[in-house]
Amino acid sequence: MNATKLRQGQLVAVFLADNVAGATLGYYGTVVSDDAASQHEFPAQPERWRYRVFVPFLNSELRVEAFQLIAFGDTIGAEQPTTPAHQLMFEGSVGEDERLVKGQYRLPGSAIWHSFAFRKEVAARASYSLAMPVRFVPGVPHSLSYTVPESSRLGRQYVLHAMREVFGGPTWQELSD
To answer: Which residues contact 40 (CB under 8 A, 6 or more apart)?
Structure first.
Protein backbone atom coordinates (compact mmCIF):
# COMPACT_ATOMS: atom_id res chain seq x y z
CA MET A 1 0.00 0.00 0.00
CA ASN A 2 1.30 3.46 -0.75
CA ALA A 3 1.24 6.43 1.66
CA THR A 4 -2.09 7.75 0.39
CA LYS A 5 -4.80 7.76 3.03
CA LEU A 6 -7.79 5.65 2.01
CA ARG A 7 -11.24 7.25 2.00
CA GLN A 8 -14.64 5.96 2.96
CA GLY A 9 -16.05 4.03 0.02
CA GLN A 10 -12.62 3.11 -1.37
CA LEU A 11 -12.58 -0.33 -2.98
CA VAL A 12 -9.80 -2.52 -1.61
CA ALA A 13 -8.48 -6.06 -1.65
CA VAL A 14 -7.87 -7.40 1.87
CA PHE A 15 -5.10 -9.91 2.52
CA LEU A 16 -5.33 -11.28 6.05
CA ALA A 17 -2.13 -12.66 7.54
CA ASP A 18 -2.12 -16.45 7.81
CA ASN A 19 0.50 -17.79 10.23
CA VAL A 20 0.88 -21.01 8.23
CA ALA A 21 0.75 -20.13 4.55
CA GLY A 22 1.01 -16.34 4.50
CA ALA A 23 -1.58 -14.04 2.99
CA THR A 24 -2.46 -16.00 -0.12
CA LEU A 25 -6.21 -15.44 -0.19
CA GLY A 26 -7.64 -11.98 -0.66
CA TYR A 27 -11.15 -10.61 -0.31
CA TYR A 28 -12.78 -7.61 -1.95
CA GLY A 29 -14.01 -5.00 0.45
CA THR A 30 -15.02 -1.38 0.94
CA VAL A 31 -13.46 1.02 3.43
CA VAL A 32 -16.08 2.03 5.99
CA SER A 33 -13.90 4.35 8.09
CA ASP A 34 -10.36 5.02 9.21
CA ASP A 35 -8.90 4.90 12.70
CA ALA A 36 -7.63 8.42 13.40
CA ALA A 37 -5.88 7.24 16.56
CA SER A 38 -3.59 4.96 14.53
CA GLN A 39 -2.63 7.91 12.31
CA HIS A 40 -1.65 9.92 15.39
CA GLU A 41 0.15 6.92 16.88
CA PHE A 42 2.12 6.19 13.69
CA PRO A 43 2.23 9.49 11.72
CA ALA A 44 5.33 8.47 9.72
CA GLN A 45 4.20 4.87 9.12
CA PRO A 46 1.05 4.92 6.94
CA GLU A 47 1.34 1.15 6.45
CA ARG A 48 0.40 0.84 10.16
CA TRP A 49 -2.74 3.00 9.87
CA ARG A 50 -5.87 0.98 10.66
CA TYR A 51 -9.12 0.92 8.70
CA ARG A 52 -12.56 -0.65 9.10
CA VAL A 53 -13.34 -2.58 5.93
CA PHE A 54 -16.62 -4.31 5.10
CA VAL A 55 -15.99 -7.65 3.36
CA PRO A 56 -19.20 -8.95 1.73
CA PHE A 57 -17.87 -12.50 1.26
CA LEU A 58 -17.35 -12.79 5.03
CA ASN A 59 -20.44 -10.69 5.75
CA SER A 60 -18.45 -8.80 8.34
CA GLU A 61 -16.53 -5.66 9.05
CA LEU A 62 -12.81 -6.13 9.73
CA ARG A 63 -10.28 -3.85 11.38
CA VAL A 64 -7.08 -4.14 9.37
CA GLU A 65 -3.81 -2.30 8.97
CA ALA A 66 -3.01 -0.60 5.69
CA PHE A 67 -0.21 -3.05 4.83
CA GLN A 68 -2.95 -5.72 4.47
CA LEU A 69 -4.81 -3.68 1.83
CA ILE A 70 -4.44 -2.96 -1.85
CA ALA A 71 -6.52 0.01 -2.96
CA PHE A 72 -8.20 0.19 -6.36
CA GLY A 73 -11.30 1.55 -8.02
CA ASP A 74 -13.28 4.65 -7.24
CA THR A 75 -14.02 6.66 -4.18
CA ILE A 76 -16.80 9.17 -3.65
CA GLY A 77 -16.68 11.81 -6.38
CA ALA A 78 -14.87 15.05 -5.55
CA GLU A 79 -17.70 17.11 -7.05
CA GLN A 80 -19.98 16.28 -4.09
CA PRO A 81 -19.73 18.36 -0.90
CA THR A 82 -18.26 16.40 1.98
CA THR A 83 -18.35 16.84 5.74
CA PRO A 84 -15.35 17.12 8.08
CA ALA A 85 -17.35 15.72 11.03
CA HIS A 86 -19.52 12.79 12.11
CA GLN A 87 -23.10 14.00 11.62
CA LEU A 88 -26.59 12.63 12.23
CA MET A 89 -30.21 13.71 11.92
CA PHE A 90 -33.13 12.10 13.74
CA GLU A 91 -36.50 11.58 12.03
CA GLY A 92 -38.91 13.52 14.22
CA SER A 93 -38.49 14.12 17.94
CA VAL A 94 -36.83 11.53 20.15
CA GLY A 95 -38.07 10.97 23.70
CA GLU A 96 -36.28 9.43 26.69
CA ASP A 97 -37.43 5.87 25.93
CA GLU A 98 -38.69 4.96 22.45
CA ARG A 99 -39.46 1.64 20.75
CA LEU A 100 -38.05 2.84 17.41
CA VAL A 101 -35.61 5.63 16.54
CA LYS A 102 -34.77 6.35 12.90
CA GLY A 103 -32.63 8.86 11.09
CA GLN A 104 -29.64 9.43 8.86
CA TYR A 105 -25.90 9.76 9.42
CA ARG A 106 -22.88 10.93 7.46
CA LEU A 107 -19.23 10.10 8.16
CA PRO A 108 -16.23 12.43 7.77
CA GLY A 109 -15.10 12.82 4.17
CA SER A 110 -18.44 11.56 2.86
CA ALA A 111 -21.07 13.35 0.83
CA ILE A 112 -23.60 10.56 1.27
CA TRP A 113 -26.25 10.32 3.99
CA HIS A 114 -26.93 6.77 5.22
CA SER A 115 -29.97 5.54 7.14
CA PHE A 116 -30.13 4.05 10.62
CA ALA A 117 -32.88 2.37 12.65
CA PHE A 118 -32.66 1.47 16.34
CA ARG A 119 -35.42 -0.94 17.38
CA LYS A 120 -36.27 -2.49 20.74
CA GLU A 121 -36.61 -6.26 20.59
CA VAL A 122 -36.43 -9.22 22.93
CA ALA A 123 -32.66 -9.68 23.02
CA ALA A 124 -30.02 -10.49 25.61
CA ARG A 125 -27.64 -7.82 24.30
CA ALA A 126 -27.42 -5.04 21.76
CA SER A 127 -26.31 -5.95 18.24
CA TYR A 128 -26.14 -4.33 14.84
CA SER A 129 -25.81 -5.10 11.16
CA LEU A 130 -24.47 -2.88 8.43
CA ALA A 131 -25.90 -3.42 4.94
CA MET A 132 -23.78 -2.21 2.05
CA PRO A 133 -23.65 -2.90 -1.68
CA VAL A 134 -21.27 -5.73 -2.64
CA ARG A 135 -19.45 -3.37 -5.00
CA PHE A 136 -19.17 0.27 -4.02
CA VAL A 137 -21.12 2.57 -6.30
CA PRO A 138 -20.78 6.31 -5.64
CA GLY A 139 -24.04 7.74 -4.34
CA VAL A 140 -25.49 4.42 -3.14
CA PRO A 141 -25.99 4.55 0.63
CA HIS A 142 -25.77 1.76 3.15
CA SER A 143 -27.88 1.27 6.26
CA LEU A 144 -27.35 0.47 9.92
CA SER A 145 -29.89 -1.68 11.78
CA TYR A 146 -29.42 -1.78 15.54
CA THR A 147 -31.24 -4.12 17.92
CA VAL A 148 -31.71 -2.78 21.45
CA PRO A 149 -32.71 -5.02 24.39
CA GLU A 150 -36.20 -4.35 25.78
CA SER A 151 -34.70 -3.50 29.18
CA SER A 152 -32.61 -0.60 27.77
CA ARG A 153 -33.76 3.00 27.59
CA LEU A 154 -33.68 3.92 23.91
CA GLY A 155 -33.30 7.66 23.46
CA ARG A 156 -31.02 10.28 21.93
CA GLN A 157 -28.06 9.50 24.26
CA TYR A 158 -28.27 5.75 23.58
CA VAL A 159 -28.11 6.37 19.82
CA LEU A 160 -25.21 8.82 20.07
CA HIS A 161 -23.23 6.41 22.27
CA ALA A 162 -23.90 3.49 19.90
CA MET A 163 -22.90 5.51 16.82
CA ARG A 164 -19.56 6.34 18.49
CA GLU A 165 -19.07 2.64 19.24
CA VAL A 166 -19.87 1.54 15.67
CA PHE A 167 -18.20 4.29 13.62
CA GLY A 168 -15.81 5.99 16.03
CA GLY A 169 -15.53 9.73 16.38
CA PRO A 170 -15.39 11.39 19.81
CA THR A 171 -18.30 13.70 19.04
CA TRP A 172 -21.23 13.62 16.68
CA GLN A 173 -22.76 16.78 15.27
CA GLU A 174 -26.53 16.60 15.49
CA LEU A 175 -28.33 18.44 12.70
CA SER A 176 -32.04 19.21 12.48
CA ASP A 177 -33.94 18.21 9.33
So the answer is: none
Query: Cβ(123)–Cβ(147) under 8 Å?
Result: yes
Range of the domain at 18: 11-72
Asked if residue 94 and residue 132 are part of one domain, the reply reads yes
Q: Of 49, 72, 95, which residue constitutes the final position of a domain?
A: 72
Using DSSP, state whether 68 is helix, strand or coil. helix
Per-residue pLDDT of the chain (177 residues; tens, 9 = 90+): 445 788 877 778 888 765 554 545 677 778 888 888 888 898 888 888 999 887 776 767 788 988 888 887 555 444 444 556 788 999 999 999 999 999 998 877 677 788 899 999 999 999 988 776 655 555 556 688 999 999 999 999 999 999 988 888 778 889 876
Instruction: Yes or no: say if 159 and 172 are a contact pair by the CB < 8 Å rule.
Output: no
Q: Which of 123, 128, 129, 172 is nearest to 152 (CA)?
A: 123
pTM greater than 0.85 (yes/no) = no
